[in-house]
């Protein structure tokens, strides 16, 4: 039901498109849409903590805008003068808001991406391009957490003989830290040698490596691609009509808002919300089905 | 047809004084199950590594290895990768990718198989090995046994003709090890894959093997059926007899008649026949573990509760334990039961959120860290490599004695090295030692702290039966000096033979503690092979020696004879 049940290429396309849109479209309406959608999606995916994070970002945007206006002084609409006589302008303040919102939205989209686009999807997509590169990534994904695990184990063993990171005076502790680093380095080298032997055994050096794909591109994926493409076409049109970009320097200048503009807003909103909508729709249908089954059982 | 033919293979590692392999000739038939045994350092791994070019070590070599009738080197890398599967010791370092499915496909990807073939083979393997439930998991989440099974499956996915396994179960607990070896047996029986396996846990592999090869200092000492090997080792008075499965050891120790039993079942019926018509004296049960006054306990745990994280489940759930001063106390129990965590709680590495840990009558948190680890307490971790910092064993030991006079330090190091039989290894790099040697070097290091209480976490892991004996002697020596030893282990046989008291750890607590005789006699599954084999006649016989003694006594044989039998 979640967006990650779709093909990884679609996941990648969506997040690439939506982050590109957030960075490229500096029209306040589009930025606002992006921020709200990313906030809603992050809250849905990652729960209360993500929602708290999103809410905490809002005052940060305002603070950033104040800070920005205090340091850059372009623009013609002077609101006030600060104590050294520089202009505080509406334009620079608004532009600060725009930059802040942009950064916050990108952060939120990245946190969604983190939940959906896991390491094995990266490995898979790279595998389509270069099996070797994808293997390398996969090796790293195994090695890095393992090193952490080993560091914990070593730490406990060293504490068991009174040489732990939190035992002894300051100098002893520094010494113990280097001991541990040294143990880990030796272990890593040794371990990599064994892993290399195991890979050689299974013919890693042979030419013509392929990559197993556990994903299939099915009809559901295709229909989603069509929907995304349609929306993207609408948005591109808008982009060529200069609906997404406005000027802030020296004066806020934007194209007139026509009824057509609302179409673009709507298209962008749908685009950003589609994964969330699909997930909620799926959940709703699931619940309805469960209820129906229960009713039938009852009857 | 011979699958592998080894002709007069002699090999020496660079700069080594002696040959690692000396004139080894051996033919391995197609579909055969061959077991390679020998003490550690006898050249088992070196020989196995010669059966695959990608792993063959550098050094001076003469003689040759034929694979299916032609020299091994002539089979290219592609052919060797697919046809010769090799499983190594350490389950963890062989796994190279992060997902189970990717690891399964690894070999096939190297061979450049297309999607259809790969999908089918991977599906097949996952179903055959019963790993479809963890197909999508991260490999980091698997247990040691599951990891080794995954290694085996990922090699079998390439459909090899030969499967070579180099001590594959040495890092596994007994249950996982038996499981793994059963799978290997199944592959051999159902697919006809040739299996060449080196092992020191012989209870499971002896009944399965077609032939057994014995290596001693690089020479092929014997090559015969399992029973034939038993007979020969016995006739030559070899100390390898100590490594044989318990039923065989008892059979030879008691000089039984008839065919030598290999399994517990065969052992039981042999023993029944042997004892027929002879009086079985009613045994008085051995003394139970005495309650000791708290003042005589070196370590006391009182209702200790611990969990790793706030919302995680409890690992220790009210552990109560009393370890008498100067005793060797063993705690046995399944994997992940929390035994190691208990040791960490005693060391104050894990801090219990409820309950008390008393060392020599004083709360552990009242000790200053310096006090605690200087002359009071030390723990030997499961993996000795986590202790090694330096380039040689000598430096390793010296570094434990900071700031003392040069002469005196040197002297103490030599003394402890002699005690732990690592004196010849002082110049070597700790990583170059065998498992048993590493264990002893690490123990030497820990003992330089002069602990009164020594905690050992799985000290027999990856050690063969000879090293176990040495370890037992070392521990006995420490005990004489008044050191209290608390060890946690899966190794029932070791605990039965050498511990003063055994406790069972289950579900986050110590369920029962007793003397080995009582403890194992009360269990019927979780007990030694010798006990399972003889419990219908001698309910309190726990070790092979116990059974031998009772059989000899029932024949009315003298003390001299019994002692001879026990020496076996």
UniProtKB/TrEMBL annotation, chain A:
Q: Which GO terms describe its cellular component?
A: plasma membrane
| Stored InterPro entries | ABC/ECF_trnsptr_transmembrane
Stretches that traverse the bilayer = 12-41, 53-74, 94-117, 223-241, 261-281
CDD domains from the entry?
Answer: EcfT (cd16914)
The record's subcellular location field reads: Membrane
Task: Enumerate the UniProt keywords alphabetically.
Answer: Membrane, Transmembrane, Transmembrane helix
Q: What's the superkingdom here?
A: Bacteria
Q: What is this protein called?
A: Energy-coupling factor transporter transmembrane protein EcfT
Q: Does the keyword Oxidoreductase apply?
A: no
The protein's topology relative to the membrane is:
Multi-pass membrane protein
UniProtKB/TrEMBL annotation, chain B:
Sequence ranges assigned to domain ABC transporter in this UniProt record: 4-242, 299-532
InterPro entries in the record? AAA+_ATPase (IPR003593), ABC_transporter-like_ATP-bd (IPR003439), ABC_transporter-like_CS (IPR017871), ABC_transpr_CbiO/EcfA_su (IPR015856), ECF_ABC_transporter_ATP-bd (IPR050095), P-loop_NTPase (IPR027417)
GO-annotated molecular function: ATP binding; ATP hydrolysis activity; ATPase-coupled transmembrane transporter activity
Q: Which organism does this record belong to? A: Guopingia tenuis
Coiled-coil segments on the chain, per record = none
Q: Which UniProt keywords apply?
A: ATP-binding, Cell membrane, Membrane, Nucleotide-binding, Translocase, Transport
User: What family is it from?
Assistant: Belongs to the ABC transporter superfamily.
In terms of SMART domains, this protein maps to: AAA
Q: Record's PROSITE patterns? A: ABC_TRANSPORTER_1 (PS00211), ABC_TRANSPORTER_2 (PS50893)
Q: One GO cellular component term, please give it.
A: ATP-binding cassette (ABC) transporter complex
Q: What is its main location?
A: membrane
Its recorded name reads ATP-binding cassette domain-containing protein
Q: Where in the cell is it found?
A: Cell membrane
Record keywords: Nuclease included? no
* Membrane-related topology note: Peripheral membrane protein
